[in-house]
Design brief:
four-stranded antiparallel beta sheet, seven-stranded mixed beta sheet, 417 residues, 28% strand
Length: 417
């Protein structure tokens, strides 16, 4: 799967990678030079004014191209001295992998990963051999969450673009399946078997169980979906229980909406239970343009703005130039200006029919639903949905695969043996 994603990243890349990046370019052949032609001295680069060097480096931080920023710092000692070192303050948000997602999450591989900058549409292949020295628990907001292979399995957070590692003092609780890294590099860990959430800062001696006002399963599932959408910190306040109760009724709202629309969805299997387990439905909380949104996928996609103060939902008819990809596992929003084959103001979702899965698209304004292709895009093999569509793989298929597949934590898997 890893090699397929690498080929797909090169084939589906829709925003040209600047020539300064050698990530996806073949090695250049050595050319014989005319000895009569003079070459510019590389020493001239080291004499550039510090303020100009900083402006060059900072320009890459606008779109979070941290790999380019690190390349600038690697040119010469004077350039490193003129620019800020990400390792000097790992909490500096300028150097967090904002907008990046890890598309290739085959944790059994050789440390190579395919990353995507959703702000620019740029793919990046990166070799991270350090991953082989730890149990990979998951990814969150571009970060890798790791655990020591030897007991007591203390936690670590790795920034793959700066290679900075934050080491936690606390060991990871038993059977953690999901993790989220917050803006201060604190960790929230989720245990499905006990439906408990644990939190810790890097210097905490242990992970502490989070107390909620309600013990209902819907509250935990709501928090879990918020973590997958990267907004757990925003909903973990006083209104969280009310919001969770609202989300618990989504299956009923979706069924009623589909019946009212009557758009040929007769083949969808609707649940008669309005309290269907929240974790099994295609819904997620995401932040888009500073607004928290509740997004629902199959059978009838809809998007609502969440008012946390009033605990109400406001249906939206437009999300502008953005598009949203969603499954029952997780959700991702992208700027369609960076992905020309993706249609703006649409929800791309997964339709499950037995062991097959289809990618469908629905415009948020008219709510018309259509399949991307006539044949299934995925087939279920074990816990994973394997892409079976014709090659080359498209960006739409790649992002849909990201939403539908979340690999198991290596540590949790070892603890089950």
């Amino acid at each position: 799967m890893s090699r397929e994603l690498e080929r797909a990243a090169m084939a589906a890349r829709e925003v040209p990678t600047p020539l300064s990046s050698a990530v996806l370019l073949p090695p250049a052949k050595r050319m014989k030079r005319d000895p009569s032609c003079s070459e510019p001295s590389p020493a001239g680069w080291s004499t550039l004014p510090d303020d100009l060097v900083r402006r060059i480096a900072d320009s890459f931080l606008v779109n979070n191209d941290l790999d380019y920023y690190m390349s600038v710092r690697g040119v010469c000692p004077s350039w490193r001295a003129a620019t800020d070192d990400p390792s000097s303050d790992t909490r500096d948000p300028r150097f967090h992998p904002r907008g990046w997602v890890v598309l290739d999450e085959d944790f059994q591989g050789d440390g190579r990963r395919v990353l995507l900058n959703t702000l620019t549409g740029r793919f990046l292949r990166k070799k991270l051999p350090v991953l082989l020295d730890y149990y990979v628990m998951g990814t969150s907001g571009g970060f890798f969450v790791l655990a020591d292979k030897s007991p007591p399995h203390t936690a670590h957070v790795l920034n793959p673009l700066t290679c900075c590692m934050v080491r936690f003092a606390a060991p990871v609780p038993h059977m953690v399946v999901l993790s989220e890294v917050d803006s201060s590099l604190g960790l929230a860990l989720f245990c499905d078997s006990s439906r408990r959430i644990y939190r810790a800062a890097p210097d905490s001696e242990s992970f502490v169980a989070v107390k909620t006002k309600s013990k209902k399963a819907a509250v935990y599932d709501c928090f879990r979906k918020a973590a997958v959408g990267g907004v757990y910190a925003e909903i973990s306040g006083l209104k969280s229980t009310i919001l969770a109760e609202m989300i618990a009724f989504l299956p009923m709202f979706m069924r009623i909406g589909a019946q009212m629309q009557n758009r040929g969805l007769e083949n969808i299997n609707f649940s008669d239970d309005p309290h269907t387990d929240v974790k099994d439905i295609q819904s997620s909380l995401v932040v888009l343009s500073g607004q928290m949104l509740l997004v629902s996928g199959a059978p009838v996609p809809f998007v609502s703005q969440v008012d946390m103060d009033a605990a109400t939902l406001h249906p939206l008819r437009s999300i502008g130039r953005f598009a949203i990809f969603i499954s029952n596992r997780r959700c991702l929003a992208v700027d369609t200006d960076m992905f020309r084959s993706i249609e703006a103001n649409c929800v791309y979702f997964i339709q499950l029919l037995g062991s097959s899965a289809y990618i469908c698209k629905s415009n948020i304004e008219d709510r018309k639903v259509q399949r991307i292709s006539e044949n299934p895009d995925f087939v279920k093999q074990g816990k994973r949905f394997v892409l079976i569509a014709c090659r080359p793989v498209t960006v739409i298929q790649l992002l849909s695969s990201y939403t539908i597949n979340i690999p198991d934590s290596q540590l949790a898997w070892q603890q089950m043996l």
